[in-house]
Amino acid sequence: MGYDDHGGNDYNNDYNNDNIDDYGGDAGMDTGMPDDPPPESPRGEDRPDGEVKEEPKEEWVDDGSLPLVDGTLPFFLLDAHEEAATPGTVYLFGKVPNGGQHQSCCAVLEGCMRCIFFVPQPGTFTGAELTRLEAEAAANPGAKGPLLRHLHEQAAALKAEVRAVLAEHGIDKFVIKPVRRNYAFELDSVPHGEQWVLKVRYSAAKPSLPNGLEGEHFVGVFGAQQSVLESVLLKRRIMGPSWISLSCPTRVDASKQVSWCKLEVKVEGHKNVSSKCAGQQEPPPLIVAALNLKTSLHPQANTNEVVAASVVYLPAVNLDRPLSKAAWNSSRSLRHFSVLRKLDGQPFPAGFEAKVQAVNASEMGRRNGGTMLSAQASERSLLMNLLARLRALDADVLVGHNIAAFDLDVLLHRLQHHKVPQWSRVGRLRRSTFPSLGGGGGSFGGGAGPGLMTAMAGRLICDTYLGARELLHEVDYTMATLARIHLGQTRSDLAAADVPGKYEAAPKLMELVQHTESDAWLALSLAMHLNLLPLSRQLSCLSGSLWSRTLQGQRAQRIEMLLLHEFYARKFLLPDKLSGRERERLARRQHAAAHADDGEAFEEVKAGGKKGKAQYAGGLVLEPKKGLYNSIVLLLDFNSLYPSIIQEYNICFTTVRRPKDGSIAPLPEPSHDLAVLPKVIRGLVQRRREVKSLLANERDGVRRQQLDIRQQALKLTANSMYGCLGFSASRFFARPLAELVTAQGRDILQSTVDLVQSSVGLEVIYGDTDSIMVRTDVAKEEEARAMGARVKREVNKRYKLLEIELDAMYKCMLLLKKKKYAAIKLDRDAAGRTVEVKEAKGLDMVRRDWCALAKDCGNYALDEILSGRPCEDVVSAIHARLRQVREKVDAGAVTLDKFVIHKQLTKRPEDYPDAKNQPHVQVALRRAAAHKREGTKQGETVPYIICIEVDEAGQPKDGGAGGLAERAYHREELAANPALRVDVQYYLANQVHPVVSRLCAPIEGTDAARLADCLGLDPAKYHAAAAAGSGMRDALEDALIASTATLDCDARYKDCDPLWLTSADGTRFPFVGVQDVLSGGVAPGDAFAPPDAAATGSGLSAAQVANQVRLRAREAVAKYYEGSLVSDDELMPVNTRNVCLRAQGDAAPGMASPNVASAGHMAAAMSEAALYTQLSHFHRLLDPSLALARLKDDTERLEATRRLAPIREALEAGRKAVEQLRNRCAYRWVSLGSLYNVTATGA
After folding, report:
1. How far apart, in whole angstroms, are the C-alpha atoms of residue 123 and residue 120?
2. What is this structure's pTM?
């Protein structure tokens, strides 16, 4: 029967026992020796009496060389590592107390075991006898022998097959035992629920089995590829960086150490590691050091060489509380040193060595050990000196800005190039062979590979670039930007090409040293300012993940580890970690099994879409009621909607039944007992509530920061739980569960909208996933707040755990489209007074791919629109500002930084298939070729300016032609090339105009053409774009629903094409319309003749007019049937007849742009509404009756009739021609009979 080695309580049954778990130490085990043992040995047999002999182990003796407490070594775990070259061994890195201090220590955990589980075919363990024996064993736990023997008998065939599988893979020693385990995940071949399985334990030094094994007697194998490190963390319940205790440690002599730590011990087996450590509460202080390198490009080798290095460090950083600025910004607490070398063997400039001596002899130099600045003769000696200083420092954490993608990458490559001895001192594990230093894509810092991270094992890498990207929302994440915004420091850039110039004089060379030190200090300051170490430690402790992986920004891995800990403790078979290919193979196999009998051809099925994104419907996004709202708008938001849904409906792997047909799963049956997933989330939510309660009552500043960091970590963890369900690369990917959660979210949002509008009687103008916006039609804050309270009360009484809250109140709002709005938020300051704050969501101004000039213009327009001033004044002010912008641009009064566009690299520059068409990629490729540090790696932001090249006379070469990508340059390139000029026309037409015109779309009194005219652009180009835009299309739809009188409004037809006619001599001219003839603008005899032919009296006959009108009308119909589609993205316009079925945001199927660079939605260039309006426009130009009906005075009407008499026949002929065609247009007709028949049927 199953004695198991899983730590902790037994959640499933009374059959498991944690006390016996070793070779030969479990009654009824099969020790699995392949050959027949000698007669005197019982190994290899299933002994009925359960007696298996084992060799006695050598007793451990404390030699007094270790600082033990109660016989165990207290050990604060910082990092852990597993080497492929030494399978079965895990290296634990941390700190141990010793004489009132703490020193680095490496614990080598040897003799680890691998545990795998074979799931038998259904029916293997069945029968009345088994049921009886299980009941007896449950009633009398001491009498399990009969049950064990019966289980082994039933599993005889399965065990024989398992032995064969193990032997095939070179595993000759193992232990087999039946145990009870639960399964609740996504493999269709494995039965759900609690069941008997075979557990196999063998040395992890032996080969692992491949994933996906199946056999005649078993349906699956679990844990085959589980890393030994993960197994140790789960078995010993190690929850992140914390105190653990090591039993029976043996000190390793310094000459035999495999690490660079001050102390090294050996520990045999994972059971000598315990997560309980008595007497240790506070984490030890850590040595945190920031490293920065300055490089120069070698002209022949075209590689970066290190010319200077600086390390700024804090010798004692307390992890349990954030450091105050005084603590990390003081010369008393900070220490630093720098190393500089000669350049290309040239001597240092005169006086530099004297400056080095003076620096080291200064008070600051003495405080830093007397060698604050070291001058070296070569790059090799610089590297050796740097390694020696790092080894003596023995930093626990290395900090830097993009340190893994640049500084460490360059450092390791140069160490390898110079064959520096003991190069592995950069990390904490001794090595002789360099790992592969190839790029790793986005695995860490946008460029570091696993080889680099392996070399750094034992030292934590805190990359401020990664931390800032996760915690902040900025246009770019360069050190200069972050230092200016968050530290109030100005950083000057120093390009690698400018470094050799610093060697011209001693003062300049000292500037290089100071710049290197400053960059290291800025990185350290940013890490302390953002509390990256305390926050990442809290996240690691919550999830049970390694601290090093949390610092890498692996959010999905954190949640994975949390769920692994939770399900392991409850004795579940855990889903295996699969590669991308293995996931696709599994998806194909399950698809084939599901459709084995349907007779359809099998299609390729992939486990997930692009980047593992969800391939199912997401949250509900309502169609917004666009416009400018000048009364208060309420924003009500469900608190943590998806985690709350999981709790409300008890959604878990264990409770949701997955339909075989792929439909949305039904909700679980109501239950008082929470399943695993909702219980974990509830625990996190309750803990956060408790911490927030403590935070509200805490007055101590440092303690408040501690509590705030803890509640942030709890919030981030709880809100990320749902994500693992829908992320196809996650081990806990469960599409049915994710679909069920989002489906419930859609139902809840829609039912909330219905409730608010029907029961409360308020209008919902927009809703998105977990929030709704409610129009109040009141201006007083108290009245609006009372309405919000009523909505909250009505909604919350429907649910037990789901809660909707009043999230914000807006004084006025500009609602443009889905996920795009701006408003004036009514907020409260510290004194409780109401303050107004502008808030913008999804607008162009908050995106980084718009230049500052466009954002400034957009913000000005937005401020005017939300000012509450009369519409005429708003429009006038916007027009005036645009004219002013044009004047400043023409005069060269706009600074260069206003033209910089930022765009992020979503993959490595060389991996873009359409790199030639991507401006930022072209700039990044050129920078990478020049060995620039920033703007070259995946995840980084590339700044560029669109330029034209001019000749000596200042005129554009080739007329300014060339693709956009060809004309994109970095600011450094622009400064270095005097022939480049900013392409002003591009910025006005494609940056400023789109931003402002989208904001002004709902505003009366202006349009895209008028705004273009203010910017000095050709307004004619924007008439068609406006007609194709969604806002104008809505206006045309409204016109067609209106009355006939409304259809005659000139504004409705301002974007229609004119009625072009052609005279006998081929002159083409527009027909002005009957209204202009009546007003006296055109003489009746000249109406059907070109203006320059009026003197000849030549005009078109009635037949000619009818024929030409018919032709123009047919051209409009033909344009409609072309089926051309245009995008509403003015920055990246697309015109095509191809229908793209690619999913894009909230676009309806077929409305996504075929150009992935275009963010717009596609719409018909000539819609049904536009065609009907165009035909109606022709009709109104030629219809004398309609024009005469507009005249109210009878005398005027008689005079007008007389005036039209000469052309009346031609007008009627043209009118009838277009009317015949328009009457065939079905758009104008509504079949009431069909409508009422449908209604009646539905009733």
Report:
1. 8
2. 0.77
